[in-house]
């Protein structure tokens, strides 16, 4: 019998979002916080053109994409590190700090990849329970010690959708020692409408230990191509770039991401529709009698406790796949109006 690392025995594999369907074929995937829109024609065209070069390895430095991101966000190109999805960049972060005895602090519940990546990198997870549905930043600051090398702050938080405002986040960052890297995971940044929720890129500039994780998977609609990036001060970005598997960001992902930045206005218009639907869905749920925390992301969160799996099953009857966390709650992505209506029908029926 081949032998594996002991940690694997304790690890549950990452569970991707499910797909379900009604007998007459209705199927709405609201389980992975994806964009519900088809890719833009201009992006499909760039991918088709890029397909002509796939006999060659991709540009390992992804120079074109790096420069496009640098220009778009007004950051130096050497502050950018790319990966095959932001989850891979997160893995690179864990690999860069991972050593026996090292700890990472993050809120829990938050993005379910954090504990997996910590375990894989041999880093001890220090999970700080949410206060209600929000980050408990005081408790997180108190959890930092001399073994802490990194803190993940997911803003808005997956799966609760709640977000941290500028004053609270700045006060927290002021308490974090300089040798601890703070990663602001902003996978859902483009959906934020609360002006008090800071753009991490305004916070990292004066703080050498703060960096920002972003993705093309959500608002930019490229979940299937896998591309995300970190914006960090040069020593951090350089360390992270060292951990990338050569050629990890493939050529089609690179050209599609460049094309998406060019078509950003169109994409952000779509985000606006999702934000409007988010308001409609949340208000309808509240009118049905649900408690729904304010959300700045492209999903809503229902704390269902022991009823969570029953709720997911009730949604499946309407063809709606949600993301249940057994015993805790369900996260439901905002989709097309039709998908959202199917979800609201299921939610209303569940309340009876
Ligand atoms: C908070 C958060 N960070 C990172 C990711 C990873 O996204 P990707 O690897 O597609 O960029 C996700 C995906 O759901 C997420 O919710």
TrEMBL record:
Q: Which UniProt keywords apply?
A: Aminotransferase, Pyridoxal phosphate, Transferase
Q: Does the keyword Lyase apply?
A: no
What GO annotations for molecular function exist for this entry? aromatic-amino-acid transaminase activity; histidinol-phosphate transaminase activity; pyridoxal phosphate binding
EC number from the UniProt entry: 2.6.1.57
Reactions accelerated catalytically: an aromatic L-alpha-amino acid + 2-oxoglutarate = an aromatic oxo-acid + L-glutamate
Q: Name the cofactor(s) required for activity, per the record.
A: pyridoxal 5'-phosphate
Q: Where does the record place the Aminotransferase class I/classII large domain?
A: 29-344
In its UniProt entry, what is this protein called?
Aromatic amino acid aminotransferase
User: What does the subunit section of this Swiss-Prot or TrEMBL entry state?
Assistant: Homodimer.
Residues the record lists as N6-(pyridoxal phosphate)lysine modifications: 218
**What is any one GO biological process for this UniProt entry?**
L-histidine biosynthetic process
Spell out the family assignment given in the record's similarity comment.
Belongs to the class-II pyridoxal-phosphate-dependent aminotransferase family.
Q: What does this protein do?
A: Aminotransferase that catalyzes the conversion of aromatic amino acids and 2-oxoglutarate into corresponding aromatic oxo acids and L-glutamate.
Task: Give the classification, highest ranks.
Answer: Bacteria, Bacillati, Actinomycetota, Actinomycetes, Streptosporangiales
Q: Does the keyword Transferase apply?
A: yes
Q: Which gene encodes it?
A: pat
Residue ranges that the Swiss-Prot or TrEMBL entry lists as coiled coil: none
């Amino acid at each position: 019998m081949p032998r594996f690392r002991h940690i694997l025995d304790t690890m549950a594999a990452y569970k991707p979002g499910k797909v379900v369907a009604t007998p007459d074929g209705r199927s709405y995937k609201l389980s992975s916080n994806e964009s519900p829109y088809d890719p833009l024609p201009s992006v499909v065209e760039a991918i088709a053109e890029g397909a002509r070069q796939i006999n060659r390895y991709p540009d390992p430095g992804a120079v074109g994409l790096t420069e496009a991101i640098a220009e778009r966000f007004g950051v130096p190109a050497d502050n950018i590190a790319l990966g095959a999805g932001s989850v891979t960049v997160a893995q690179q972060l864990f690999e860069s700090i991972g050593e026996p005895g090292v700890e990472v602090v993050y809120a829990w519940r938050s993005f379910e990849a954090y504990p997996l990546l910590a375990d894989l990198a041999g880093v001890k997870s220090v999970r700080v329970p949410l206060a209600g549905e929000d980050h408990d930043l005081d408790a997180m600051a108190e959890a930092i010690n001399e073994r802490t090398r990194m803190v993940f702050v997911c803003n808005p938080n997956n799966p609760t959708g709640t977000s941290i405002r500028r004053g609270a986040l700045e006060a927290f960052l002021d308490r974090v020692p300089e040798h601890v890297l703070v990663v602001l995971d902003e996978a859902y940044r483009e959906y934020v409408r609360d002006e008090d929720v800071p753009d991490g890129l305004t916070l990292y500039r004066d703080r050498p230990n703060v960096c920002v994780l972003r993705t093309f998977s959500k608002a930019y609609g490229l979940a299937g191509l896998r591309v995300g990036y970190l914006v960090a001060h040069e020593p951090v970005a350089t360390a992270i770039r060292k951990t990338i598997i050569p050629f990890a960001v493939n050529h089609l992902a690179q050209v599609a991401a460049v094309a998406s930045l060019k078509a950003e206005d169109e994409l952000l218009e779509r985000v606006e529709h999702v934000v409007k639907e988010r308001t409609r869905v949340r208000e309808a749920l509240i009118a049905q009698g649900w408690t729904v925390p304010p959300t700045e992301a492209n999903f809503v969160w229902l704390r269902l406790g022991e009823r969570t799996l029953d709720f997911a099953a009730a949604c499946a009857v309407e063809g709606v796949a949600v993301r249940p966390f057994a015993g805790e709650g369900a996260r439901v992505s905002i989709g097309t109006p039709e998908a959202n209506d199917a979800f609201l029908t299921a939610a209303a029926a569940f309340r009876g």
